[in-house]
Amino acid sequence: MKSLRRSLLFVPGNNPGMILSAPVFGADAVILDLEDSVAPNQKDAARRLVSEALRTLAFGKIERIVRVNALSTPFGEKDIGTILAAKPDALLVPKAEPESLRRVSAMVDEMAPETGIIALLETALGVELAYQCALVPHVNGLFLGAEDFTADIGTSRSAEGIEISYARQRVVIAAAAARIDSIDTPYTGTEVTDEFLADVRLARKLGFTGKACISPRHVQAVNEVFSPTQEEIVFAKRVLEAAEDGRRRGVGAVSLDGKMIDPPIEARARQVLMRAGLLGVEGGKRNG
Amino acid sequence: MGENILGRVIPDDVLGNKPLFAGAFARSPQGRKASPPLKAVRPGENKVLASIKEAIKASGLKSGMTISFHHHLRNGDYVLNMVLQACAELGLKDLTVASSSIFPIHAPLVEHIKNGVVTGLDCNYALGPVAEAVTRGLLPRPMIMRTHGGRVRAIESGDLHIDVAFIAAPAADAYGNINGVDGPSACGSLGYAMADAQYADYVVAITDNLMPYPLHPISISQSLVDAVVVVDKIGDPKGIVSGSTRITRDPVGLTIANYAARVIEAAGLVKEGISFQTGAGGASLAVAAYLRKYMEERHVTGAFGMGGITGYFVELLEAGLLRTILDTQCFDLVAVKSLKRNPNHIEIDAGMYANPWNKGAVVNLLDTVILGATEIDTDFNVNVTTSSDGIIMGGSGGHSDTAAGSKLTIIVTTATRTRLPIVRDRVTTVTTPGETVDVVVTERGVCVNPRRQDLIEKLSQRRLPILAIEELKRQVEDLTGKPAPARTSDRVVALVEYRDGSIIDAVYQVE
């Protein structure tokens, strides 16, 4: 069954202690990383550790994602083969572009067709071809990797993120068009600061469905921002009741609190309740 | 053989006529308090003696007697070692050392035990070479391990008679007034020394900071002190107080702390006049930090905070989030300074803090206490006395006292310690009985004692990861395997005394 990907927590694939405690921070998904957090001389050990962790550790309802190395590196193919044999829920494929994604997709087809693919768009070409990436079979999420992306376009990151605003919106729109998840680049600090919170709120406002975290301390706030609030749930229920009531009475347009309820508002209400349902959150009787 | 209600068997020869543990509030006191002898000091008499040896001679200390010490200088204490060295040089034997705690710095005690100078130990906490040597069978008689409140009970009831109390005094005047807030070895509160000063037959203040008369503030009065000895140094400041204790940054510790604060909130305790105690460790402090957010959101002021007092509690006091701190022991220099200058930071003695047999200890008024654990069993019994291989590495201190007193006792711990699971079928040693423990909080979930159905109801209305303690045990054993119990002989090396004087468990010799 589909579950939400509000928070996706990176865990270094070569750290047994952190892998053991990865499930306890409340993240919807953990990303066991074989790529950037693992030094080249530890790639083989990490690959083996992560594949054993997938086979033996209980992650409960948490989605188990593995970031493999890119196919263009000497480690990529071996990573994908070994990890798919251990049946993760999804692979996070770095430097994703339609061509490389199709190759990974074929391997998934062959070895573990239940496994999803999240495309890590971190090149100018990948971002530009985001929608094509989204259409590759098994791809169920687009993930913006802003560090590599800004390097690729010849700039650097800033706190307010002006340099990635187009990329963010392109990724969100491509994912939405393909009806898959869009995941925002992680905030690179490790503290919970106002700057971090602003970054998370911006991601949600732009339409992302979730955000990656490099620190467990960020998980709770990301979950909160990407969850429907009690007010939203109550409002969504009222919208659907009013719309239903209008249909029963044969009235074309209904209004709620003095505002028209049109199809997009109703659609958004359904979306809110769908997300709330996936989280097991009930609308409170009380507003707030 | 006697077996107490927790199923702990105590051999008759070591139990003697001590009662077996029969429930946290099963025993009631009878009779009258013990009392020290009447004394007179006449005008013109001088209390300052030339050396520790002079003081020992003046006290009338003889072989076979009991001498006492407080542990406020913690792992920086020189006084216990200096006094024992003098006792050894004077040819004294068969002494019992009643020190409220024993630290690694007290390693020279091991030699004194080997030489027969010391044959008995009585403490509330023991860590380091002495504790290890005791566990390996060095001491001819079992060590008595009490609680902070239980020690005062034992002194006041006469169970623990102190012949001579040697009180390390960071500041003293020539007539015997003492405080802990001044001088190079300042340690703050002297809460654990006060019962010794009141009930010992003879009281010696040992100081490296003789101040003009009258010293002020006065923590221990001249009316209780027989003699004053000045030495070069009573301790090493580095071992006495830490620089500052920081809130943990470990994400697992923060997760646990966050759950614990949510448990307190869900239990309905975040309200005007809340009182709480936490340990001084980074994870316990993190609970206080999360609790602070709830208090600020609701504009709630706490009545008092207790515990090993650190700078973080001082911050809460100064921010107006606590009306008072009740302090039996300071853990850092910020706390020491605050005790000296802030009238709302109040020094209290260990009896007022935790003695179960007086007219009301402060622990009875605690809303909640955050405690640690080395092991917990599925009946919620807690071990903080021995490691899982059976070696003594702690003791109750105030653990059992606060657990018994507070409305909500929360144990915070990681679910595993390196490769060992925390939850066991049977703890190696019972320090604190499960009937006084309400909630166990780990990063893998929150376990509520089934005795607290009211709490289970309240907590299940919140989005907290609640699970049965048996389920937590199963989950963790899936990761760690099931460890073998400690390998011990059948010789008792320590008796664990509950706060009411009954025997809750015994520690057995480890080869």
UniProtKB/TrEMBL annotation, chain A:
Residues that hold substrate according to the record: R67, E122
Record-linked InterPro entries: Aldolase/citrate-lyase_domain, Citrate_lyase_beta/mcl1/mcl2, Pyrv/PenolPyrv_kinase-like_dom, Pyrv_kinase-like_dom_sf
One GO molecular function term of this record is: lyase activity
Q: Which domain of life is it from?
A: Bacteria
What positions does the domain HpcH/HpaI aldolase/citrate lyase occupy?
6-216
Which controlled-vocabulary keywords does the entry list?
Lyase, Magnesium, Metal-binding
Q: Would you kindly state one Gene Ontology biological process term found in this protein's UniProt entry?
A: oxaloacetate metabolic process
Keyword Metal-binding: yes or no?
Answer: yes
Lyase as a keyword of this entry, yes or no, is yes
Entry's transmembrane regions:
none
State what protein this is by name: HpcH/HpaI aldolase/citrate lyase family protein
What organism does the UniProt record list as the source? Candidatus Fermentithermobacillus carboniphilus
Automatic annotation (TrEMBL), chain B:
Plastid among keywords: no
Broad class of the protein's primary localization: cytoplasm
Catalysed reaction, written as an equation: citrate = oxaloacetate + acetate; citrate + acetyl-CoA = (3S)-citryl-CoA + acetate
Q: Which domain of life is it from?
A: Bacteria
- Keyword annotations: Cytoplasm, Lyase, Transferase
Molecular function in Gene Ontology? citrate (pro-3S)-lyase activity; citrate CoA-transferase activity
Q: Which InterPro entries match?
A: Citrate_lyase_asu (IPR006472), NagB/RpiA_transferase-like (IPR037171)
Q: What is its EC number?
A: 2.8.3.10, 4.1.3.6
The residues forming a coiled coil are: none
| GO biological process entries | acetyl-CoA metabolic process
Q: Which SUPFAM superfamilies match?
A: NagB/RpiA/CoA transferase-like (SSF100950)
Q: Where in the cell is it found?
A: Cytoplasm
Name the GO cellular-component terms: ATP-independent citrate lyase complex; cytoplasm
One Pfam family of this chain = CitF
- Gene3D superfamilies noted in UniProt: Glutaconate Coenzyme A-transferase
Protein known as: Citrate lyase alpha chain
User: What organism is this sequence from?
Assistant: Candidatus Fermentithermobacillus carboniphilus
